[in-house]
Design a protein that fits this description.
Layout: H1 5-11, H2 14-17, E1 27-32, E2 37-42, H3 45-48, H4 54-57, E3 58-60, H5 64-71, E4 77-83, E5 86-94, E6 97-103, H6 106-119
Helix pairs in contact: 5-6
């Protein structure tokens, strides 16, 4: 699971954070803004009752399977590969259009795919454009 500074920045956007609706019994990982560290837990009843303000305190770091669910069923063709320590990927939209990305982790590749497929934005070192 990617917990790098880049991945945290990539996740800290409304397109991702607004989709975080914690469910009891599900494992989550997040960046705690107060303590400046990654935390992880299975969401419990006590956590669920303390949801007021959780978006101001935490940055949800979705797992790869959670990102894939955000994309949903699609006709897009995905290809993900690893070259050395770098990850890359392509989405083939039609015969004339290919979206390519290079990243440091498979989560970053999938997140880039998700934001591009759902919002037509790309990661530009510090911000989604």
């Amino acid at each position: 699971m990617d917990t790098s500074e880049t991945y945290i920045k990539m996740c800290d956007c409304p397109e991702i954070q607004e989709q975080w609706l914690p469910k009891i019994g599900v494992y989550y990982q997040w960046w705690d803004k107060r303590y400046k560290e990654v935390r992880q837990a299975i969401w419990t009843k006590g956590c669920a009752s303390n949801r007021i303000g959780f978006r101001q305190k935490f940055i949800w770091l979705p797992r790869q399977d959670q990102i894939q669910k955000m994309i949903g069923k699609t006709e897009l063709v995905f290809c993900i590969y690893q070259i050395g320590s770098k990850w890359g990927g392509e989405i083939i939209c039609d015969r004339d259009q290919i979206f390519s990305v290079e990243a440091s982790s498979p989560e970053q590749v999938w997140l880039a795919f998700c934001i591009w497929a759902t919002h037509k934005k790309v990661w530009d070192e510090d911000i989604w454009k």
